[in-house]
Amino acid sequence: MTQTFEIAVFEGDGIGPEITGPTVNILAELARSSNSYGLSFTDAPAGAAHYAKTGESLPEASMAIARRADAILLSAMGLPDVRYDDGTEISPQIDLRKALTLFAGVRPVTVRAGQRTPLNMPDGKEIDFVLIRESTEGLFYTQGRGEVTKDEARETLLITREISEKLFKFAFALAKTRKEAGRGPGKVTCVDKANVFRAFAFFREMFDAEAAKHPDLIADHAYVDATALWMVQKPWDFDVMVTENMFGDILSDLGAGLMGGLGLAPSADIGTDNAVFQPCHGSAPDIAGQGVANPFAMILSGAMMLEWLGIRHDVEAMTSDGAKLRQAVEHVVAQGQILTRDLGGEAGTDAAAKAVIAALDLP
Q1: Are 356 and 138 spatial neighbours (Cβ–Cβ below 8 Å)?
Q2: Which of 175, 197, 270, 327 can pair with 240 through a Cys bridge, CB separation 3.0 to 4.6 Å?
Q3: Torsion over CA: 92, 97, 183, 23 (sign)
Q4: What sign does the CA torsion over 341, 346, 350, 353 have?
């Protein structure tokens, strides 16, 4: 009997609905063609526009949909002119991370042969690594609750054993999966600042304890400042990197820059029981409604969702379809003939999505 998975869909703000629609259509078509699994999509209202209309940014009904869903597909959220009374941005994606304890922020960085990149890539080199950002604590722990006086301001960095041990276990499991798939040597790099801060020495000690459990994998360390340098000089040397929340926030945008921009940057926030998949870019309200938004990062996030669901539920067809979808987007981008404006092309959202469908060559 075919198993059907419920997907909670947060269509987002600005260009969010424009890139969500084609992504959902592609995912539905893959499921139809496979005939080995099913997908049902449930809309979950949330975001800045919803807050402006109702006074709620993440209704309890939408949170309930997210909690029960097998996976959450979340588009770009937030609008610059819609904020809470304290001036902070509307960010349901962060609320979901905290409420569902989505501790592993997964940010893949891929540059294939022929793909445009700001780097001067040596012949035969490609970039294929994953940055894992702890997403629930670190320097984001006191978000919205920092202490500010006339003369000073304080934010608290928190690193806990409970979350860190789960994070490192996840990182080594991902490295093993990538190695088995032929996508990396099975190496995990702990990115920290353990030479200066006791909190990061604590972080590194827990990493080393988990590394000792995986003699078949490679474990090493790198300070965050050196990592930023090496991500530009030799990014092809990385496989899986794991780091604190703020460091990961910064380095993930550097990784997006290597690919040519946030329009190619998918992401996932994964916990023990739930996972959110969303593009790294913002809602770009200045181009909303014009049909020119880049859907690639959203589609790639959908591909990550399929692969995660396939591995989690042992459905080989989903894992395979996720890989096929990722490869289809990489093929379109590397070909360079149908690119959106942010990538130096002239294609609109619809044309870009259709190019991915053509590359899939579905029956």
Answers
A1: no
A2: 175
A3: negative
A4: negative
With 0-12 CB in 10 A as exposed, 13-18 as middle and 19+ as buried, what is 236?
A: middle
Amino acid, single-letter form, for residue 270: I
Which of 211, 241, 264 represents a domain boundary (last residue)?
Answer: 264
- Is pLDDT above 90 for 155? yes
Residue span of the structural domain in which 59 resides: 1-100+273-363
At 310, phi and psi to the nearest 5?
A: -60, -45
User: Does 72 lie in the same domain as 43?
Assistant: yes
pTM for the whole thing?
0.92
CB 208 within 8 A of CB 220: no
pLDDT tens track for 257-292: 999 999 999 999 999 999 999 999 999 999 999 999
End of a domain among 222, 240, 264? Answer: 264
Q: How many domains in the chain? A: 2
Q: Are residues 109 and 258 in the same domain?
A: yes
Segment 238-249, tens digit of pLDDT: 999 999 999 999
Please check whether residue 330 is in contact with residue 296, taking contact to mean a CB–CB distance below 8 angstroms.
no
In a shared domain, residues 195 and 314: no
CATH number at residue 89: 3.40.718.10
Q: Are residues 69 and 2 in the same domain?
A: yes
pLDDT in tens, 313-348: 999 999 999 999 999 999 999 999 999 999 999 999
Residue 112 CA to residue 117 CA, distance in Å, equals: 10
> What is the pLDDT, as a whole number, of residue 89?
84
172 contacts 188 by C-beta, under 8 angstroms: yes
Reported for 173-178, long-range contacts at CB under 8 A and 24+ positions apart, including other chains, are 174/106, 174/130, 174/132, 174/240, 175/217, 175/239, 175/240, 176/214, 176/216, 176/217, 177/311, 178/130, 178/239, 178/240
Cα–Cα dist 329/113, whole Å: 13
One domain for residues 252 and 182 = yes
Is there a single domain that holds both residue 234 and residue 306?
no
